Amino acid sequence: MKTDISLMAHGEPRTSTPAIDVRGLRKTYPDPSGEVRAIDGIDLALGAGEFVCILGPSGCGKSSLLNILAGFENATEGSALLGGVPITGPAHGQGVVFQDTAALFPWLNVRDNVGFGLRNAALSRAGRAAKVDEALRLVGLEGFARKWPHQLSGGMRQLVSIARVLVTESRVLLMDEPFGALDALTRQQMHRRLIDIWRATGVTVLLITHSVDEALYLANRVVVLSPRPARVALEIDVPLPFPRETTDAEFNRLKALALRQLGF
């Protein structure tokens, strides 16, 4: 079902311009013994409404890539565009969800955390309230609006972080291992909830993960990076219907491809 927050139906992008377009991206960091190259020539494009998981070994440059796309760091070489516009810093239209749920403000309740990004928006009080209500409904937290972050489970705090992005009508959702600290059962529940949110809103999702199962369960495309410096080593299209079964033969064939590329 389309919502007020959604600007497009899933699978029906309004424009041929990629939501994210990365060309020849390189990133190096200074080091006492010389430069350390984290990213070495990545080309990557995400269509509007696409769900892509970035998979790779620890320290390969996944988070560096996400930080550049979020506008937190500058690339050393190459280009990174959001909706055809160069990324020069954090911008309206993109939102970030981190693994650390401490990003929520502990002195604000759930409703006020979600509405924080609207504090300077040209909206009436009723308009802001309506957007917050819709975001909470989308993530399934409409009954927890007056709770405080410390009263929520880890999974629920991550849903608050997602709602805080959706309420600003961000069209790109960047997620840096958002479920890595959750227990296995909560993680599975969050996977299903995230898929529901993505399909309801049509938001473009780029999710960083170490988990092959997580990547194949969530994404329509999985991009496997090489060990540092990061290069695109393999792209896997995942045409499986939702909900996906991890015991499905095709799921496990794709899993074997990813694991082989990762050296297992």
Short account of what is shown:
With 264 residues, this protein is α/β, with parallel strands linked by helices. The protein has helices at residues 62-70, 110-115, 125-139, 154-166, 184-201, 212-218, 249-261; strands at residues 20-29, 36-46, 51-55, 77-82, 85-86, 94-97, 172-176, 204-209, 221-225, 232-237. Helices cover 31% and strands 23% of the residues.
What's the helix and strand layout?
Blueprint (H helix, E strand, L loop, with lengths): L19 E10 L6 E11 L4 E5 L6 H9 L6 E6 L2 E2 L7 E4 L12 H6 L9 H15 L14 H13 L5 E5 L7 H18 L2 E6 L2 H7 L2 E5 L6 E6 L11 H13 L3
Parallel strand pairs: 3-8, 3-9, 6-7, 7-8
Antiparallel strand pairs: 1-2, 1-4, 4-5, 9-10
Key features of this structure:
Rossmann fold; six-stranded mixed β-sheet; 7 helices; 23% strand; globular
Level of helix content?
Answer: 25-40%
**CATH class identity of the domain at 1-90 and 220-264:** Alpha Beta
Overall geometry? globular
> Overall mean pLDDT score?
87
C-alpha Rg (nearest Å):
18 Å
Q: Strand percentage, roughly?
A: 15-25%
Specify the biggest β-sheet.
6 strands, mixed
